[in-house]
Amino acid sequence: MYLVSTLEHLCKGVKEARPAFAMRITRRVDFSASHLCAIPSLSQEENQAIYGDGANPHGHGHNYVLEVTLEGEPDPVTGMVFDLKELKSILQREILDVMDHRHLNQEVPPFDRIVPTVENVSREIWKRLWPKLNLSNARLHQVRLYETEDLFVDYSGEPA
Amino acid sequence: MTLTHRYRFSASHRLYNPALSEWENREIYGRCSNPYGHGHDYILEVSVEGSPDAASGRIIASGDMDLLVHDGVLRVYKGKNMNLDIDTFVNGRVPTTENVAQDIRERLERGWPAEGEPFGYTARMPSLSGVRLFETAKNIFDI
Protein backbone atom coordinates (compact mmCIF):
# COMPACT_ATOMS: atom_id res chain seq x y z
CA MET A 1 0.00 0.00 0.00
CA TYR A 2 2.80 2.34 0.93
CA LEU A 3 4.58 1.49 -2.32
CA VAL A 4 1.45 2.13 -4.38
CA SER A 5 0.79 5.47 -2.76
CA THR A 6 4.44 6.46 -3.13
CA LEU A 7 4.36 5.56 -6.82
CA GLU A 8 1.15 7.51 -7.32
CA HIS A 9 2.70 10.40 -5.52
CA LEU A 10 5.74 10.36 -7.77
CA CYS A 11 3.77 9.82 -10.97
CA LYS A 12 1.39 12.66 -10.34
CA GLY A 13 4.08 14.93 -8.98
CA VAL A 14 1.62 16.50 -6.56
CA LYS A 15 2.03 17.16 -2.86
CA GLU A 16 -1.45 16.02 -1.90
CA ALA A 17 -2.23 12.70 -3.54
CA ARG A 18 -5.99 12.37 -3.35
CA PRO A 19 -6.93 9.17 -1.55
CA ALA A 20 -9.79 7.20 -3.05
CA PHE A 21 -12.52 7.21 -0.43
CA ALA A 22 -15.06 4.44 -0.39
CA MET A 23 -18.25 6.17 0.64
CA ARG A 24 -20.23 9.27 -0.20
CA ILE A 25 -22.85 10.91 1.96
CA THR A 26 -25.19 13.67 0.84
CA ARG A 27 -27.16 16.19 2.82
CA ARG A 28 -29.88 18.26 1.23
CA VAL A 29 -30.94 21.76 2.34
CA ASP A 30 -33.04 24.42 0.69
CA PHE A 31 -33.13 28.17 0.72
CA SER A 32 -35.17 30.85 -0.97
CA ALA A 33 -33.57 33.92 -2.47
CA SER A 34 -34.15 36.53 -5.11
CA HIS A 35 -31.75 37.53 -7.84
CA LEU A 36 -31.45 39.26 -11.15
CA CYS A 37 -29.31 38.04 -14.05
CA ALA A 38 -28.07 40.84 -16.26
CA ILE A 39 -24.76 42.26 -17.45
CA PRO A 40 -24.90 45.98 -16.59
CA SER A 41 -23.07 47.07 -19.76
CA LEU A 42 -25.63 45.36 -22.05
CA SER A 43 -29.06 46.59 -23.09
CA GLN A 44 -32.23 45.11 -21.61
CA GLU A 45 -32.92 43.42 -24.97
CA GLU A 46 -29.49 41.77 -25.02
CA ASN A 47 -29.82 40.61 -21.40
CA GLN A 48 -33.28 39.27 -22.16
CA ALA A 49 -31.78 37.23 -25.01
CA ILE A 50 -29.10 35.73 -22.74
CA TYR A 51 -31.06 35.21 -19.52
CA GLY A 52 -34.72 35.18 -20.61
CA ASP A 53 -37.11 36.11 -17.80
CA GLY A 54 -34.12 36.09 -15.44
CA ALA A 55 -33.19 39.56 -16.70
CA ASN A 56 -36.28 41.29 -15.30
CA PRO A 57 -34.74 44.49 -13.80
CA HIS A 58 -36.64 44.17 -10.51
CA GLY A 59 -35.45 40.61 -9.94
CA HIS A 60 -37.32 37.39 -9.16
CA GLY A 61 -36.82 34.44 -6.81
CA HIS A 62 -36.27 30.70 -6.54
CA ASN A 63 -36.54 27.90 -4.02
CA TYR A 64 -32.98 26.67 -4.37
CA VAL A 65 -32.21 23.09 -3.37
CA LEU A 66 -28.61 22.32 -2.44
CA GLU A 67 -27.18 18.81 -2.21
CA VAL A 68 -23.79 18.64 -0.53
CA THR A 69 -21.88 15.40 -1.00
CA LEU A 70 -18.91 14.40 1.15
CA GLU A 71 -16.63 11.47 0.45
CA GLY A 72 -14.75 9.66 3.16
CA GLU A 73 -14.21 6.61 5.29
CA PRO A 74 -16.53 5.81 8.18
CA ASP A 75 -14.70 6.36 11.45
CA PRO A 76 -14.03 2.94 13.05
CA VAL A 77 -15.39 4.09 16.41
CA THR A 78 -18.38 6.27 15.49
CA GLY A 79 -19.26 4.52 12.22
CA MET A 80 -19.74 7.94 10.66
CA VAL A 81 -18.03 9.58 7.68
CA PHE A 82 -18.92 12.97 9.11
CA ASP A 83 -21.18 14.09 11.93
CA LEU A 84 -24.38 15.12 10.15
CA LYS A 85 -25.31 17.43 13.01
CA GLU A 86 -22.09 19.30 12.45
CA LEU A 87 -22.63 19.32 8.68
CA LYS A 88 -26.08 20.76 9.27
CA SER A 89 -24.67 23.56 11.41
CA ILE A 90 -21.89 24.30 8.88
CA LEU A 91 -24.47 24.56 6.08
CA GLN A 92 -26.64 26.77 8.27
CA ARG A 93 -23.76 29.10 9.13
CA GLU A 94 -21.93 29.23 5.80
CA ILE A 95 -24.83 29.11 3.33
CA LEU A 96 -28.31 29.55 4.80
CA ASP A 97 -27.49 32.41 7.17
CA VAL A 98 -25.82 34.15 4.21
CA MET A 99 -28.24 33.44 1.35
CA ASP A 100 -31.65 32.42 2.68
CA HIS A 101 -34.28 35.12 2.16
CA ARG A 102 -31.73 37.50 0.67
CA HIS A 103 -31.48 39.37 -2.58
CA LEU A 104 -28.26 37.86 -3.92
CA ASN A 105 -27.20 40.84 -6.08
CA GLN A 106 -27.80 43.40 -3.35
CA GLU A 107 -26.93 41.58 -0.16
CA VAL A 108 -24.53 38.71 -0.89
CA PRO A 109 -21.05 39.52 -2.23
CA PRO A 110 -19.55 38.73 -4.72
CA PHE A 111 -22.88 38.97 -6.56
CA ASP A 112 -22.70 42.76 -6.44
CA ARG A 113 -19.93 42.28 -9.04
CA ILE A 114 -20.64 38.97 -10.80
CA VAL A 115 -23.93 37.68 -12.16
CA PRO A 116 -25.65 35.26 -9.73
CA THR A 117 -26.31 32.53 -12.30
CA VAL A 118 -26.78 29.03 -10.92
CA GLU A 119 -23.24 28.34 -12.17
CA ASN A 120 -21.71 31.20 -10.18
CA VAL A 121 -23.82 30.56 -7.05
CA SER A 122 -22.73 26.90 -6.99
CA ARG A 123 -19.08 27.95 -7.31
CA GLU A 124 -19.48 30.44 -4.44
CA ILE A 125 -21.09 27.73 -2.29
CA TRP A 126 -18.15 25.42 -3.03
CA LYS A 127 -15.68 28.19 -2.06
CA ARG A 128 -17.45 28.77 1.23
CA LEU A 129 -17.68 25.06 2.13
CA TRP A 130 -14.33 23.67 0.97
CA PRO A 131 -12.23 25.19 3.82
CA LYS A 132 -14.65 23.71 6.40
CA LEU A 133 -14.97 20.30 4.76
CA ASN A 134 -11.44 19.27 3.84
CA LEU A 135 -10.42 16.82 6.55
CA SER A 136 -8.12 13.82 6.68
CA ASN A 137 -10.88 11.19 6.62
CA ALA A 138 -13.59 13.12 4.75
CA ARG A 139 -13.87 15.98 2.34
CA LEU A 140 -16.29 17.83 0.12
CA HIS A 141 -16.84 15.87 -3.09
CA GLN A 142 -19.55 17.77 -4.95
CA VAL A 143 -22.23 20.41 -4.64
CA ARG A 144 -25.38 20.10 -6.72
CA LEU A 145 -27.50 23.23 -6.83
CA TYR A 146 -31.02 23.20 -8.24
CA GLU A 147 -32.25 26.65 -9.26
CA THR A 148 -35.49 24.97 -10.31
CA GLU A 149 -36.49 21.35 -10.72
CA ASP A 150 -35.49 21.67 -14.37
CA LEU A 151 -32.13 23.44 -14.08
CA PHE A 152 -29.18 22.38 -11.94
CA VAL A 153 -25.38 22.44 -11.70
CA ASP A 154 -22.88 19.88 -10.40
CA TYR A 155 -19.58 21.34 -9.27
CA SER A 156 -16.53 19.64 -7.76
CA GLY A 157 -14.04 22.50 -7.67
CA GLU A 158 -11.46 23.35 -10.29
CA PRO A 159 -9.30 20.50 -11.64
CA ALA A 160 -5.97 20.30 -9.79
CA MET B 1 -18.73 22.15 -13.95
CA THR B 2 -21.78 20.38 -15.32
CA LEU B 3 -25.06 22.14 -16.10
CA THR B 4 -28.21 20.09 -16.63
CA HIS B 5 -31.50 21.13 -18.21
CA ARG B 6 -34.59 18.97 -17.88
CA TYR B 7 -37.22 18.60 -20.62
CA ARG B 8 -40.43 16.61 -20.99
CA PHE B 9 -42.15 14.88 -23.87
CA SER B 10 -44.92 12.33 -24.27
CA ALA B 11 -44.77 9.62 -26.90
CA SER B 12 -46.03 6.10 -27.57
CA HIS B 13 -44.18 2.97 -28.58
CA ARG B 14 -44.56 -0.74 -29.02
CA LEU B 15 -41.75 -3.14 -28.17
CA TYR B 16 -41.95 -5.69 -30.95
CA ASN B 17 -39.22 -7.21 -33.09
CA PRO B 18 -40.65 -8.33 -36.47
CA ALA B 19 -37.76 -10.81 -36.88
CA LEU B 20 -39.09 -12.81 -33.91
CA SER B 21 -42.25 -14.85 -33.54
CA GLU B 22 -45.37 -13.58 -31.75
CA TRP B 23 -44.62 -15.97 -28.90
CA GLU B 24 -40.99 -14.77 -28.60
CA ASN B 25 -42.08 -11.11 -28.60
CA ARG B 26 -44.60 -11.87 -25.87
CA GLU B 27 -41.93 -13.71 -23.85
CA ILE B 28 -39.32 -10.93 -24.17
CA TYR B 29 -41.39 -7.77 -24.01
CA GLY B 30 -44.51 -8.91 -22.15
CA ARG B 31 -47.19 -6.22 -21.89
CA CYS B 32 -44.93 -3.79 -23.77
CA SER B 33 -45.60 -5.71 -27.02
CA ASN B 34 -49.34 -4.94 -26.93
CA PRO B 35 -50.21 -4.51 -30.67
CA TYR B 36 -51.73 -1.06 -30.21
CA GLY B 37 -48.75 0.31 -28.28
CA HIS B 38 -48.68 2.35 -25.10
CA GLY B 39 -47.13 5.64 -24.02
CA HIS B 40 -45.04 7.41 -21.41
CA ASP B 41 -44.39 10.91 -20.15
CA TYR B 42 -40.64 10.92 -20.66
CA ILE B 43 -38.27 13.22 -18.80
CA LEU B 44 -35.04 14.05 -20.62
CA GLU B 45 -32.00 15.52 -18.86
CA VAL B 46 -29.30 16.99 -21.08
CA SER B 47 -25.96 17.85 -19.42
CA VAL B 48 -23.14 20.02 -20.70
CA GLU B 49 -19.63 20.31 -19.29
CA GLY B 50 -17.65 23.53 -19.34
CA SER B 51 -16.64 26.68 -17.49
CA PRO B 52 -19.01 29.60 -17.04
CA ASP B 53 -18.18 32.59 -19.23
CA ALA B 54 -16.55 35.30 -17.10
CA ALA B 55 -18.95 38.03 -18.23
CA SER B 56 -22.28 36.21 -18.39
CA GLY B 57 -21.69 33.59 -15.70
CA ARG B 58 -23.29 31.02 -18.03
CA ILE B 59 -21.85 27.78 -19.45
CA ILE B 60 -24.52 27.89 -22.16
CA ALA B 61 -27.32 30.40 -22.69
CA SER B 62 -30.62 28.74 -21.75
CA GLY B 63 -32.19 29.81 -25.05
CA ASP B 64 -29.40 28.14 -27.03
CA MET B 65 -29.76 24.90 -25.07
CA ASP B 66 -33.54 24.97 -25.55
CA LEU B 67 -33.09 25.53 -29.28
CA LEU B 68 -30.66 22.61 -29.70
CA VAL B 69 -32.82 20.19 -27.70
CA HIS B 70 -36.04 21.33 -29.36
CA ASP B 71 -34.68 21.11 -32.90
CA GLY B 72 -32.69 17.92 -32.29
CA VAL B 73 -35.08 15.92 -30.14
CA LEU B 74 -38.40 17.38 -28.99
CA ARG B 75 -39.51 18.32 -32.52
CA VAL B 76 -38.96 14.68 -33.48
CA TYR B 77 -40.37 12.91 -30.41
CA LYS B 78 -43.06 15.13 -28.86
CA GLY B 79 -46.52 13.59 -29.21
CA LYS B 80 -45.36 10.93 -31.66
CA ASN B 81 -45.80 7.20 -32.16
CA MET B 82 -42.16 6.12 -32.31
CA ASN B 83 -42.74 2.97 -34.36
CA LEU B 84 -44.72 4.82 -37.04
CA ASP B 85 -43.44 8.43 -36.95
CA ILE B 86 -39.69 8.32 -36.21
CA ASP B 87 -37.34 7.25 -39.00
CA THR B 88 -34.97 5.47 -36.59
CA PHE B 89 -37.71 2.99 -35.68
CA VAL B 90 -39.97 2.66 -38.72
CA ASN B 91 -37.76 -0.06 -40.19
CA GLY B 92 -38.33 -2.42 -37.26
CA ARG B 93 -35.62 -1.25 -34.85
CA VAL B 94 -37.22 -1.73 -31.45
CA PRO B 95 -37.81 1.54 -29.54
CA THR B 96 -36.67 0.23 -26.18
CA THR B 97 -35.67 3.12 -23.98
CA GLU B 98 -32.02 2.03 -24.40
CA ASN B 99 -32.38 2.54 -28.16
CA VAL B 100 -34.34 5.78 -27.69
CA ALA B 101 -31.68 7.21 -25.35
CA GLN B 102 -28.99 6.31 -27.89
CA ASP B 103 -30.98 7.88 -30.74
CA ILE B 104 -31.50 11.06 -28.70
CA ARG B 105 -27.80 11.29 -27.92
CA GLU B 106 -26.88 10.78 -31.60
CA ARG B 107 -29.37 13.44 -32.72
CA LEU B 108 -27.94 15.93 -30.21
CA GLU B 109 -24.37 15.13 -31.28
CA ARG B 110 -25.23 15.58 -34.98
CA GLY B 111 -26.63 19.05 -34.32
CA TRP B 112 -24.07 20.10 -31.71
CA PRO B 113 -22.10 23.26 -32.67
CA ALA B 114 -18.29 23.14 -32.61
CA GLU B 115 -16.98 23.02 -29.03
CA GLY B 116 -15.15 26.13 -27.85
CA GLU B 117 -16.68 28.24 -30.62
CA PRO B 118 -19.34 30.92 -30.11
CA PHE B 119 -22.95 29.91 -30.83
CA GLY B 120 -25.97 32.17 -30.46
CA TYR B 121 -25.64 33.93 -27.09
CA THR B 122 -23.12 31.38 -25.81
CA ALA B 123 -19.52 32.61 -25.76
CA ARG B 124 -17.87 29.15 -26.03
CA MET B 125 -19.88 26.04 -26.75
CA PRO B 126 -19.45 23.46 -23.97
CA SER B 127 -19.28 19.72 -24.63
CA LEU B 128 -22.34 17.49 -24.46
CA SER B 129 -21.53 15.42 -21.38
CA GLY B 130 -24.59 13.29 -20.73
CA VAL B 131 -28.13 12.28 -21.59
CA ARG B 132 -30.43 10.80 -18.95
CA LEU B 133 -33.85 9.54 -19.98
CA PHE B 134 -36.61 8.69 -17.50
CA GLU B 135 -39.16 6.40 -19.16
CA THR B 136 -41.09 6.48 -15.89
CA ALA B 137 -40.00 7.64 -12.45
CA LYS B 138 -38.71 4.10 -11.90
CA ASN B 139 -36.92 3.34 -15.20
CA ILE B 140 -33.90 5.55 -15.83
CA PHE B 141 -31.30 5.33 -18.62
CA ASP B 142 -27.95 7.15 -18.86
CA ILE B 143 -25.85 7.42 -21.98
List keywords for this structure.
heterodimer, A: 160 residues, alpha+beta, Tetrahydropterin Synthase, Chain A, 5 strands, elongated, B: 143 residues, five-stranded mixed sheet, 33% helix
Helix content of chain B: 25-40%
Low-pLDDT sequence parts of chain A: 1-15
Tell me the number of strands of chain A.
5
How many β-strand stretches of chain B?
Answer: 5
Short description:
The complex is a heterodimer of chains A (160) and B (143). In chain A, 32% of the residues lie in helices and 28% in strands.
Structure description:
The complex is a heterodimer of chains A (160) and B (143). With 160 residues, chain A is of the alpha+beta class. Chain A has one domain: Tetrahydropterin Synthase, Chain A, CATH 3.30.479. Helices cover 32% and strands 28% of the residues of chain A. Chain A has five helices and five strands; from the N terminus they run H-E-H-E-H-E-H-H-E-E. Chain A has a five-stranded mixed beta sheet with strand order 3-1-2-4-5. In chain A, a hairpin with a 2-residue loop joins strand 4 and strand 5. The longest helix of chain A has 16 residues. Chain B has 143 residues and is an alpha+beta fold. Chain B has a single domain, classed as 2-Layer Sandwich (Tetrahydropterin Synthase, Chain A), CATH 3.30.479.10. Chain B is built from five helices and five strands; from the N terminus they run E-H-E-H-E-H-H-H-E-E. Chain B has a five-stranded mixed beta sheet with strand order 3-1-2-4-5. In chain B, helix 2 packs across helix 5. The mean pLDDT of chain B is 96.
